[in-house]
# Entry
Amino acid sequence: MNFCIALYIGLFTVATTKHVVVNWDISHITVNRDDYNLRRAIGVNGKLPIPPVEATVGDTLELNVHNGLDRPTTIHAHGLFQTNNTHMDGPAMITQCGIPPGDSFTYHYTLEQAGSMWLHGHLAHEISDGLRAAFIIHDKPGAELYHYDKDYLLTFEDWFSTEFADRMYHTINPKEEFPPPKSYAYGLVNGVNGNITQTLNFEPGKTYRIRLVNMGDINSFQFSLPGHEMYVIEADGEYSVPYFTDGIDIGPAQRYSVLIKAHDTDAFNYYFNATMHANFISASPGLSPRVYTGKIEYSADAPYQDTRAFYERPDFKWLNDIEMHSASGHPAMVPNRKLYLEIGNNLYNTGQHLDHINNITFVMPNVPTLFTALSMGSLAMDPRVYGPQTNAVVLKYGDIVELTINNFSTLLHPFHRHGGTFQITEYGPAGSSTPAPESFQNITVQKSKGSPMRRDTISLTEFSYVKVVFKATAAVNFFHCHNSIHSAMGMDMVFIEGPDVLQKTLQIPNAMYEMCHKQGIPTIGNAAGNIGFDFTGLPNVPTIVKQTGDNQ
# Structure
């Protein structure tokens, strides 16, 4: 199937931009989202799901947030590059203090890229309790890379019967078994039970873009549309060369766009499939995986096509993102700095099983990391000032960095880089002195060819490694597993990129300092709020008792 690339981009486009204002009043509400469980959740303007936010490249977005919760909150614009805007990125105690209860704060974004993004809470893992919404940035009219007649959005969420804090308590409580008993979520599509989502209407001969956004907590979603050819044109806000696939396994925080050419006849209707699953939850009929279907309707009078044979085909093709090519055509970057990361889980002297990157379990600093970078002068280039538990890596502005991430566990880990994307250059079997289980010994080395695909969230599968390459900017960028439980257990780190450049170019608004001062949080000094390398006041660092590898 051929798709016309718009080579006339910009020739007949009138330059118009808007100032988009969105008001969010965040509060606790009581809802039944899955048709089974009434529970407390976090909503916006008294409702869940939160409506998608839409804007256009070149627009400025003003997100006015009022915190009606009984604890601080922040918002992260997942997928935005945040060029010269790192202070608006949102992760608490990395680029800002939390918005205090009862207070308000305004995020300002200049939208420089098109794509399928999302907005979510970034403190106390409020994302898991409902604080998440799709954020779609459209191309300017006439500047679309690919032609399509209509744009559909499908968001996917996993929804648990209890709040995140309760699940986390049972995970890290040293008096309880580890890992804890499995909890089974329900799947939501466009904010409702996955089997009652709104029908997608197709007209013969037209082309449709369907955006697929996994806003889930820990579960992946397998998407397919039997009876149609599906071409992927976007991953995580980056356009790709059209890539044919039968199905896409969408990890937490990942996004895709697919183009689908409707049939020339309305003789049949069809179903799309969205199967929610997590590889660490054993199969249990009706509980895991959960299979959801939605309707593709050509005609109200037409029968639905039986598509069971589609999944039984021996040539069924799942998407493999290292086979994709960036539409930008940019070649693989040549790194001048290489970093090696190992991830897993350890038993500590506290009796807790906690996650780590290179045997460091992340703990928030006493001073937001960005504020340390701005206030420590030449010492900002020394990673020690950011504290022993922030797992900080300082990069020079313009460094080309290759990350090799090794996963020695039996779990998938979706890793997200804030503030930008990376090229995916290689997958392979994780190197270890301990052989992987037999079922994971068939992993082969795969290398990118041509222009490597770029994205901001990578699904790192069991007993494997991935190599990604990115260019350091002037920013403080969080890097973490996007499984909320794993991130809360410490599978996080932070890149301080070009702090010397930041000190010359970035000015923090007074309102951000005032939020900190109101909560008694220092805004200058090292990770402890002290001078030099005096870390008095930081929490005690737990001691590793046993390296266990696997995590929850």
User: Anything to note?
Assistant: Residues 6 and 145 are 5 Å apart (CA to CA). The first helix runs from residue 164 to 172.
